[in-house]
Amino acid sequence: MMKKTVCLFGLLWAGLALAADQPNIVFILSDDQGWRDYGFMGHETIQTPALDKLADSSLVFDRGYVASPLCRPSLASLATGRYPFEHGVVGNDVDGKNNRAELDQPVKDRFHTFPSFVKLLSENGYLTHQSGKWWEGSFQDGGFTHGMTHGDPARKGRHGDVGLRIGRDNMTPVTEFIDRAVEEEKPFLLWYAPFLPHTPHNPPKRLLDKYSEEGRSADIAKYYAMCEWFDETCGTLLDALDERGLRENTLILYICDNGWAPYSSNLDDPNQKTWKGFALRSKGSPFEMGIRSPIMVSWPGHAEVGRSPDLAHAIDFFPTIAAAAGVEAPAGLPGINLLDEDAVRSRQTVFGVCNTVMQMSVTDPDDTLQYLWCIEGDWKLILRYPGRDTSPYRKLHAWDKAPLRLYNVKNDPHEKNDLAAAHPKTVARLKTKIEVWRSN
Known about the structure:
Strand 12 and strand 13 form a beta hairpin. Helix 2 crosses helix 9. This protein is of the alpha/beta class. The termini are far apart. The longest helix has 26 residues. The chain has a single domain, classed as 3-Layer(aba) Sandwich (Alkaline Phosphatase, subunit A), CATH 3.40.720. Helices cover 32% and strands 18% of the residues. The protein has an 8-stranded mixed sheet, with helices on both faces. Strands 10-12-13-14 form a 4-stranded antiparallel sheet, covered by helices on one side. A two-stranded parallel sheet has the order 3-11. Belongs to the sulfatase family. This is Arylsulfatase. Its cofactor is Ca(2+). Keywords: Calcium, Hydrolase, Metal-binding, Signal. InterPro entries: Alkaline_phosphatase_core_sf (IPR017850), Sulfatase (IPR050738), Sulfatase_N (IPR000917).
């Protein structure tokens, strides 16, 4: 009996010691924000003091990329560490409005067959909380122990429902969850994905007044104000961690789901307003304003502080979180641990996709595939996906029917000069890389 008691005590002590060593994890995701639209990224007007302060204590990857330039597939790739054509979530909705929820269920079912860092942490003793954007049913469906989203289509559950109130209304659900985790002495994961700066662009008047000025379009002023509003909510969250003395043992990760730009800032032609509310070459496109986002990793004593010139990707979040928490990630994840300097420096290329905005097919993720892209160093190749022009789901962007485009994104960050004809060997090399990547 004494031996059994000692053994039980030893196991309990080991479990408590492991929990004490495991960091809390705070995942911050903004929604529809251009990669330059932060103070720490050099924007001349938008002020983001809270995120600037976080950047000062983070490893910042200026050249971060998402797997897809659209929110739902982007979030699905962040959670699973897989590309959209693997987990099957390639758009926001299955075609069809009257029975959208029924048509969408097979997509959700496929997604939930894949491991996620949420499920992994919940299974390993973490309290996990969802707030903000979440497309794949309720927070319970996603493997969270706590959360806000009910996901019930009968109650207008689609992409976050009640969870979308976080930040716009208050931060109480988040701070109450943190207090609960502290009280229970458990490590926690916080999924903070507010519906910001996403439309509706209805910022507080004080912020709108700040950015409204003669000569600046109203849509641009509203967007700028929304970016600062989002930053204010991040400040509230980060202050809550500081006030509770949690920052030293908390891993904070930041990324945006996809890029965005107001339509009146259109990079091609200000008179073209093809997409409601946002500019061409931004959200939904394979250009930098669609797929690029700064990525921040902050963990005192573990993550170096400074700017990295290396490439980072949304698929890296799962292996990074698993390594930090000391739990085993699923085999075969294509991403890397962003805290592994050798892995980061040895990476040469990142990849991604671009499917038709909004619609997707249940039967074949490639039914809506438009473009594949890769980046190697300063070179970027955008490859039009061949052979699908007859698909009822696939609609090419009016502004880009070229079979491929090559850019030097260091010298030409706005991708104005297509260099494909001048560099055929580079095109051939990158095209082969894309083909090999898709075949694996």
